[in-house]
Amino acid sequence: MSLSETAAPARPENAATYLRLYRQMAKIRAFEDNANELYLSGKMPGLTHMYSGQEAVAVGICEALTKDDKITSTHRGHGHCVAKGAEFKEMFCELLGKAEGYCRGKGGSMHIADQDNGNLGANAIVGGSAGIATGAALAAKRLGTQGVSVCFFGDGALGQGLLYEVMNMAALWKLPVIYACENNLYGEYTKVEEMAAGALAARAKAFGIETHEVDGQDVLAVNRLAEDLVERARKGEGPFFVVLHTYRYHGHHVGDINRTYYRSKEEEADWKANRDPITNFGKWLVAEKIATPEELGQLGEDVAREAKAAVDYALAAPYPPADEVDMHVYVAA
Amino acid sequence: MSLSETAAPARPENAATYLRLYRQMAKIRAFEDNANELYLSGKMPGLTHMYSGQEAVAVGICEALTKDDKITSTHRGHGHCVAKGAEFKEMFCELLGKAEGYCRGKGGSMHIADQDNGNLGANAIVGGSAGIATGAALAAKRLGTQGVSVCFFGDGALGQGLLYEVMNMAALWKLPVIYACENNLYGEYTKVEEMAAGALAARAKAFGIETHEVDGQDVLAVNRLAEDLVERARKGEGPFFVVLHTYRYHGHHVGDINRTYYRSKEEEADWKANRDPITNFGKWLVAEKIATPEELGQLGEDVAREAKAAVDYALAAPYPPADEVDMHVYVAA
Amino acid sequence: MREITLSKAVNEAIAEEMRRDPTIILMGEDVAEAGTPFKVLSGLVEEFGPERILDTPISEPGFTGIAVGAAMTGMRPIVDLMFGDFLFLVMDQLCNQAAKTHYMSGGKLSVPMVLRTNMGATRRSAAQHSQSLHALVAHIPGLKVAMPSSAYEAKGLLKTAIRDNNPVVIFEDKLMYQDKAGVPEEEYLIPFGEAKVLREGRDITFVATSSMRQVAEKAAETLSAEGIEAEIIDPRTIVPLDEATILASVRKTGRAIVVDEGHQSFGVTAEIAARIAEKAFYYLDAPVGRMGAMDVPVPFSPALEDLTVPTPERLAERARATLRGEPVHAA
Amino acid sequence: MREITLSKAVNEAIAEEMRRDPTIILMGEDVAEAGTPFKVLSGLVEEFGPERILDTPISEPGFTGIAVGAAMTGMRPIVDLMFGDFLFLVMDQLCNQAAKTHYMSGGKLSVPMVLRTNMGATRRSAAQHSQSLHALVAHIPGLKVAMPSSAYEAKGLLKTAIRDNNPVVIFEDKLMYQDKAGVPEEEYLIPFGEAKVLREGRDITFVATSSMRQVAEKAAETLSAEGIEAEIIDPRTIVPLDEATILASVRKTGRAIVVDEGHQSFGVTAEIAARIAEKAFYYLDAPVGRMGAMDVPVPFSPALEDLTVPTPERLAERARATLRGEPVHAA
Ligand SMILES: Cc1ncc(C[n+]2csc(CCOP(=O)(O)OP(=O)(O)O)c2C)c(N)n1
Ligand SMILES: Cc1ncc(C[n+]2csc(CCOP(=O)(O)OP(=O)(O)O)c2C)c(N)n1
Ligand SMILES: [Mg+2]
Ligand SMILES: [Mg+2]
Fold it and tell me: pLDDT value at position D329?
């Protein structure tokens, strides 16, 4: 695991970047708090999976990408979506199945995509997007766009054989793809060590893929590594594999409330109290005099207000009309 | 790669074992020569894949197994079948689609199985039997039979994700299974290095599986390693992974005649002249005074006669009656 | 008779069979302590232990393949596939391996395994967690396919499936897990290939699979109030299919509509309708109607999703049109 | 018109399209120097280079998934799946991903890819290399499915498939690769969803897919000598299906038999027969017949394998029975 970047002194010339990293993380947290609330108050159809706790991963990586770079996301996909540049309004509309959602309400939380910002979509098949991200990298290479793609997936997805097939091809063909394994210690209700034999990092090394591990709660460490790997991938030095050690604060999905049978309240409390990516980064920003507590407080309030306004908008927005039901099955000729 | 066992002096008390290893290899070669001839003379339906050149692998491993131990085999499966104890007659009948074949003619070369001797069958899906072998190991463990299972597959099968999924479970659950990867340098018409990134052996180590490499042309080296691993697997120390370096003499299948575009005649000639498992082992047997050249010659003739008789029998044997066509779709109640 | 949920019925079936036969194991994701996301298997690991109730990694092809191998060598594995949509991941192991092993080996090897999975839309789970894919496996010789329509059927069919010496795929409708039905305390099995006449009627036959039974029953009630008496047949297993019972009904009523929650095109309604149209041809007073799910991926939006599945209202309307002799083409 | 083999027609279609559109790539096992085991792609790597004709490892799910991603981001990949039987391995990437992406994204993303594969038994290749699995993909909304019945159709349909903005699965009958047909030198495309009337006749309609065209043509010849005139319709694409042409024919002849090489049950014959029976109901003089492959895994033994597929003799006999008004039930 790389040394914490936040142990080092801030570089004042990077202040805008730092604040943007903070803001993006705060936006994700605010989005999820509202999504959770929508579920709990019975206003959201279906279930959804909260990204809270993992913000530094999505933000640290996506801030190293351009808009044209592609990502593929997972069932726990709101964080990646926000980090890649999506708007709250279209996102909440999507979560509520409204016509103004990114996918006109057809995808919902588990399939939210944002083509314009290079997000090829969340995926409800665990591991199912490994081929897609790799294919996007192949396209970038063939088309000579200099694009890079990032495949986000959880520790649980290491169980899927597809990942190994595409890593092999990515390695053989030197594709500009970064496999970002978010190890949040659990796949649903099972601990990672009960699901994965051997060392996680060894899984990609076996294909000769350069592999890194990083503290996924340290947004600067993640971002520094990502900047480096993205740049190298653009130069044709990819693929890369990164294990990001992180934690999800909520249950597996919003309905997973009684979960002490698989993880303890103490463990959850410890991560929240001591390893929160937003709190810790905020403290560092203050200590390094990049921002005052008041400024951060204000930022938090702005973001919360923005989220609330988007929720209200989405709640009032119309559903897609009935005749859209058989639209988009095929591309119109 | 382990040191060649045939570099060491013979142990006379093992003479019977040595001769059996030799005989089993000779049987496979004779079987394949006849199968090839059947194809070339237009007497065999479909295509088939010759095992010639790889005999030391199947024999070295299967001689370390009991009849109750299970193996799963591949499209190149005659060698495994003979090595696990099958009879020529039922085998040739199967290859010709006759009713007395092991599978009543329904399976043919690519699905030949021999349940009584623990051969769960050849498989026409590359890598497709990885789950089956692992499942047989799970059954052996649950039922407490002390059984071990061996999954034979080629270097090409390393491309299939299924293998990684089941190796992970085998490692997590400590199953008595040995993954035997026969690296004959090619998958169809493509070299292994164009299909597999990284080191082959690293593929299983990534799951914490103990991995070995061995000269697959040296039947004693293979057998020694197999005896050791099988014994350890029985004690619960499995799973294991073995890369066996070997070579196929014929084309990918019997119809693959013009193949210089993917491998040279020189390479083929070199393996046949210098690394033939039967010739070399025969020389050693003679040098170590386990057998005379005449005895080996006689053994070869016996085996050839046996094969020829089985071919003649099979050619004359009846096809299954038409009413068997919809029999065996379901187990009769 | 006591009433229990479909979920409990499944749980009981497995527990009873596992007590009876020590070679039965169950494997899948989060099947042990978690008892599956639907909590269908709660309590089993406590009784049978983690050696028999195996939590697997997220490796559907892998653990299905392991089940095939275990089934070939003395075990009777039950595979829990969390969502029917994941069938696409296990098709090779299920259809190229499990389904064909007995035949390819000339009857020597067999694969006594059960793959339990689910089906059913309208849970707002979107396109990859809502499919009803039973038609796909029904097309593959060597597999049997059961579709319980209530807790009673769920228990009886699952017990039969577990004792069957062939690979059986059983689809539970995930929206029915909390639905209750009368289930005897005593042991019972439901033989495969025996349809059940759920309601007798003279005017039209509804052939309804799985939860479409409820759709058919509600439609039949509405129609009955209008003087139209529908007969309802639940095939219970679509492979083997009890053609005789279906044909006998249609020969009596002269009219039929087949209702199933899979996509309509190239689905189960096609097979059953085609057989009726062929084999009851001279008895038919109207074309055989078909109502499947719309041929669209399942949309997330509640406003759209509910339009994609057959409803009692639409079935009743279709029945009336059939009786009026109007053409009853799919939309 | 010059006559070329189906194999050559496929090769030409790909080469022409690749010359026209640099975003087209082709990927699969042994597609480059080897030109596939069937040698269908010989010469392409020499012209287009290994950057566009990609040899892959033996990783069907993986390279299909890669194709999906590449298609979403500006390429038009053609996936070569060596045997149709391997469809089972790629179902998730094809049916959960490729087929649903456009819909799930509300029309924002699309997946313009072609999966070329094959079908057809009687090559003595046994149960895992002989299947005709087109019914499975036809059941999944979002996929189009083409089934060329000659070199002419193979070229025209493949070119259309490559230009289509949706995922298209095209099944070539591997027994027809060496069959020749007239193929114009000039460019042509065959639109999807337009069936072709191959032969006109007044007495009975044969709807025949892929190589069943040859079966139907031979049967029609035999029957013609007996005074029975069969009309033959080749749907060419089963998704979309040109219902109008089929129905117009059956409304004229009053009788129909649907012939297809997939397993009969829950297969293509069911869908087409059910639609005819429903929508041409009042024109039918006899039940719609169905002839698919037997519902058994394909046996290796020549003595058995030939029994499992429709033949001209059996089709002619079925047609005679239909015309005599005898019940024509599947065996
Ligand atoms: C193929 C497949 N199998 C199972 C599931 C059910 N499922 C959804 S999320 C999940 C756990 C995934 O764990 P991980 O990859 O670690 O992601 P996390 O939820 O921890 O973010 C499972 C098993 C699924 N959606 N897809
Ligand atoms: C799933 C699958 N993909 C492709 C094939 C076609 N095929 C048959 S053998 C073979 C090569 C296998 O190579 P390897 O595993 O090294 O075995 P070898 O032939 O060298 O013994 C291929 C690609 C197949 N039978 N199954
Ligand atoms: Mg996780
Ligand atoms: Mg090989």
Answer: 54
Q: Which residue has the tokens 């499942």?
A: B135
CA C38 to centroid of ligand 1, rounded, Å: 15
For residues D264-288, one letter each, b for 16 or more C-beta atoms within 10 angstroms of the residue's C-beta and e for the rest, the string is bbbbbbbbbbbbbbbbbbeebebbb
Determine whether the interchain pair D69/A111 forms a contact, defined as Cβ–Cβ distance below 8 Å: no
User: CATH number for the C2-183 domain, one of 2.170.270.10, 3.90.350.10, 3.40.50.150, 3.40.50.970?
Assistant: 3.40.50.970
- The domain covering A17-318 belongs, at the CATH homologous superfamily level, to Thiamin diphosphate (ThDP)-binding fold, Pyr/PP domains (3.40.50.970)
Cα A238–chain centre separation: 21
CA–CA separation, C109 vs A301, rounded Å?
A: 67
Closest to B159 (Cα-Cα) out of C18, C281, A166: A166
Separation between Cα atoms, residue C62 and residue A159, nearest integer Å:
9
User: Concatenated DSSP letters for A144-189?
Assistant: T----EEEEEEGGGGG-HHHHHHHHHHHHHT--EEEEEEE-SEETT
Query: How many Cβ contacts (< 8 angstroms) between chains A and C?
Result: 122
User: Could you give the dihedral angle defined by the CA atoms of residues A259, A262, A267 and A271, in that order, rounded to the nearest 10 degrees?
Assistant: -70
Mean pLDDT in chain A? 97
- Can you tell me the mean pLDDT for C157-161? 98
ipTM reported for the complex, 2 dp: 0.98
Residue B194 touches chain D, beta carbons under 8 Å: yes
Domain with CATH 3.40.50.970 in chain D: 2-183
Residue of D12, D17, D29, D60 marked catalytic: D60
Which tens digit of pLDDT belongs to each residue from B98-153?
999 999 999 999 999 999 999 999 999 999 999 999 999 999 999 999 999 999 99
Is the full-model pTM beyond 0.95?
A: yes
Match 């939380």 to its residue by tokens: A109
Q: Do C301 and A98 touch (CB under 8 A)?
A: yes
Ligand 2 pocket, D58 CB below 6 A?
yes
Give the C window 90-129 contacts with A, CB below 8 Å. 123-129
**C80 CB within 8 Å of a chain A CB:** no
How far apart (Å, rounded) are the C-alpha atoms in residues D205 and D243? 13
Where along chain D do the CATH 3.40.50.920 domains lie? 196-324
Strands annotated E in C174-224: 180-182, 196-199, 204-208
Q: What gap in Å lies between CA A317 and CA A311, rounded to an integer? A: 10
- From residue D279, alpha-carbon distances to D247, D272, D330 in Å are 7, 10, 22
DSSP labels, A28-77: HHHHHHHHHHHHHTT-SSS-----TT-HHHHHHHHTTS-TTSEEE--SS-
CB–CB of C184/C190 below 8 Å? Answer: no
Reading the block at residue D150, the tokens are: 């000659």
Q: Extract the tokens encoding C296.
A: 């669209």
User: If 0-12 CB within 10 Å is exposed, 13-18 middle and 19+ buried, where does residue B210 land?
Assistant: middle
Task: Mention every residue, 6+ apart, whose C-beta is less than 8 A from residue D87.
Answer: C91, D81, D94, D117, D133, D136, D137
Q: In sequence order, what are the beta bridge partners of A119?
A: A71, A114
The C-alpha atoms of residue B182 and residue B329 are separated, in whole angstroms, by 33
Helix B88-95 vs helix B15-40: crossing angle, to nearest 10: 20
For C284, left (φ over 0), alpha (ψ -120 to 50), or beta?
beta
Both tokens assigned to A321: 């009309």
Who lines ligand 1 at CB under 6 A? A 75-76, 124-126, 153-157, 184, 186-188, 252; C 29, 58, 60, 82, 86, 89
| Residue D100 phi, psi (nearest 5) | -105, -10
In CATH terms, C196-324 corresponds, of 3.90.380.10, 3.40.50.2030, 3.30.1300.10, 3.40.50.920, to 3.40.50.920
